[in-house]
Design a protein that fits this description.
The chain has 301 residues and is mainly alpha-helical. The protein has 14 helices and no strands. The longest helix has 29 residues. The radius of gyration is 19 Å and the shape is globular. The two termini are 31 Å apart. The mean pLDDT is 86.
Amino acid sequence: MSTKTNNLLALSLLFVQPVFMASNLIVARAGVEFVPPISLAFWRWTVVFLILFPFTYITLKKNLNIIKKEYKKLFFLGFMGCGVCGAFPFLAGETTTVTNMGIIYTSSPVFIILISYFFFNENINFTKIVGLIACLIGVFTIIIKGDLNLLINLQFTIGDLWMLGAAIGWALYSIYLFYWNSKLKIFERFTLISFFGALSLLPFYIGEEIFYKQTVFISEFYLWVIFAAISPGIIAFTLYTMAQKKLGASLTGFTLYIFTVYGAIYGYFLFDEKFENYHFIGTILVFIGIYLAKKNNVKKI
């Protein structure tokens, strides 16, 4: 296979990977009609772990000493990446739209820069500050639906706030995944992150079962859990890893922006959602903000 063909295939991953990544928004909107949100997140990551574990068991057993040293970090990554980022979108899907979820989630890179500045002393210049402000205004334009009265009266759609929490959670996950070096290979680490993610969700799952809504183990339950585990879980993660290896972290980051477009497409065709003027204004501000915030950024997350 020629170098040109290899390059085209690698570049195609930028457009293919978000197809699976954005399918998590479909689960968040449609899956929660059949499975309670915490239950859906818990069983999703449990299934991911059960699928990956047979393939990584031998190497994990050999690296038991490394796991003992890193388990606290792995638990935090599991809690943020699978717990917060796994459950919050499903909670959001009960009250907000796929379009809103996609656009708000795209603000995550800006929170990465903010957290890096406050906790890791990364430099931030005037251009980044302008970008941060533009992005945050864009996100809140969508949350308040372009109506300042909603902001003044503190009337928000709770789902949009859950999604904002998910974006911040993904930022924390990405930062610590970047800064915490591990001696484990990618899939070994991902297996343990999924395990600790499910473990972190367990008490909330039990609470949901007792106090909110019980899970009914019908065919729709198995369909949505398996789909969530495979499509936006294992497949999206694998393709992202392949893209990062071939294209580098900086270029692969564009998958998150393409994810927003696919999210809007899914919302339009599958859920009859309309793209309102405030979506358009908010999206432009978010994208401009991210561009300015990441411009001339030497250290990429």
